[in-house]
Amino acid sequence: QVQLQESGPGLVKPSGTLSLTCAVSGGSISTSNWWSWVRQPPGKGLEWIGEISHSGTTNYNPSLESRVTISVDTSKNQFSLKLNSVTAADTAVYYCAREGYDFSGYYRYFDFWGQGNLVTVSS
Amino acid sequence: DIQMTQSPSSLSASVGDRVIITCQASQGIGYFLNWYQQKPGKAPKLLIYGASNLETGVPSRFSGSRSGTDFTFTISSLEPEDIATYYCQQHYSLRTFGQGTKVEIK
Questions:
Q1: DSSP code at position B55
Q2: What is the per-residue pLDDT across B5-40, written as a single tens digit (0 to 9) for each?
């Protein structure tokens, strides 16, 4: 059973950089799956941030693309998120998730999630 | 960018009621639509993928369908444990979630 665990500071100062890591256990990150970050501001809905493949190919949400970097470290079986120039609007629970696929490979979906890491942007 | 318009934002229903949630895509996305359930303080849980395919282990009272760019999620008979927020999500181009529907017991 794949498990994901986010880690990182719970408090970041405005204009600073938010950095989180997602450790993957119970399976290798070097598979055909893609690995995503999703966030959820308190009391609000889910927002997809971006994704990375094990080879390092990335796709980002256009609304965040100028501030986001997602990277992967296959030797440590983990991937990371950096979001710079943060403001209070970036306060959220940040989830990492694996995107799996059905037997045909046609349909993709988030099948494994971390427990979430609340990051507050405040001075 | 593909936008997903989900409605209603909240609903209140009685145990045993049929509950219907809709999601409309801003452009064609085929069947590349998933539904998730999220309970407070928990990560989302996949219920349906490919618009109408039930994830393994998910009760059969949950179902989904597609008509063009309109998608419907149905709980045939609401159970107390179904109290949660439900989200649609497209994976045709990048990834986008709907705004969510909070389901409460009347």
A1: P
A2: 999 999 999 999 999 999 999 999 999 999 999 999
